[in-house]
Amino acid sequence: MSPRSARLARLSRSVTFSSCHRLHSKSLSDEDNLKLFGKCNNPNGHGHNYKARLLISLLVFLQIDPVSGMVMNLTDLKEYMQEAIMEPLDHKNLDKDVPYFAEVVSTTENVAVFIWENLQKLLPPGILYKVKVYETDQNVVVYKGEETIVE
Fold first, then answer.
1. How confident is the model at residue 59 (pLDDT cuts 50, 70, 90)?
2. Helices 108-122 and 74-81: angle between axes, nearest 10 degrees
3. Which of 46, 79, 87, 91 is catalytic?
4. Which fold has domain 11-143?
5. Least crowded by CB within 10 Å, which of 36, 42, 100, 139?
6. Which residue has the higher pLDDT, 117 or 148?
7. Strands annotated E in the chain
8. What are phi and psi of 69, to 5 degrees?
9. pLDDT one-digit tens code per residue, 95-145
10. Which percentage of the chain shows pLDDT scores above 70?
11. Is 24 a catalytic residue?
């Protein structure tokens, strides 16, 4: 098969993990935290069954290997997700058990950034396209590694 007729595909894989957390910013007073986060600021925290879906891509697409027929070995991807997501987050109190969240509010947005950063350390460069974290069926965060420049 010539490079012009190579088949392209994106690969997606999901994992589900359970964690608890308390939405609370050290930069705000207790009263302001309660106003901002409401019942999610409960001092004893609350839990979620999160679902993290990854979309793997290289530049725009990954080329399907003509020998293996895969864009990436799913066994390898499963191991990366185990190390980057399940081990640090599953059945954990995000605020107390995950050092990253000691100074970062454990919002779903920041959970998505945490997952992205952990996966970037394990995956080949440029392969991760987006991380999608479902806190609930109604609350979903998509993160593609974007950063803003603060001047």
1. very low
2. 130
3. 91
4. Tetrahydropterin Synthase; Chain A (3.30.479)
5. 139
6. 117
7. 8-9, 11-21, 46-56, 62-63, 92-93, 128-134, 140-143
8. 80, 10
9. 999 999 999 999 999 999 999 999 999 988 888 889 999 998 899 999 999
10. 89
11. no
Domain boundaries, the chain: 11-143
The whole-chain average pLDDT of the chain stands at 88
40 is catalytic: yes
Q: Examine the residue annotation and report whether 109 is marked as an active-site residue of this protein.
A: no
Triad 61, 7, 4: Cα angle to 5°: 100
Using the structure block, give the residue that is written with the tokens 């081990």. 87
| Residue tagged active-site, from 20, 31, 135, 146 | 135
Q: What is the dihedral of CA 112, 114, 120, 126, to 10 degrees?
A: 30
With H, G, I as helix, E, B as strand and everything else as coil, classify residue 53.
strand
Q: In this structure, what is the dihedral angle of CA atoms 147, 149, 150, 151, given to the nearest 10 degrees?
A: 170
**CA 40 – CA 61 distance, rounded (Å):** 39
**pLDDT band (50, 70, 90) for residue 13:** confident
**Residue of 21, 24, 40, 147 marked active site:** 40
Q: List helix spans (H) across the chain.
A: 30-37, 74-81, 87-89, 94-97, 108-122
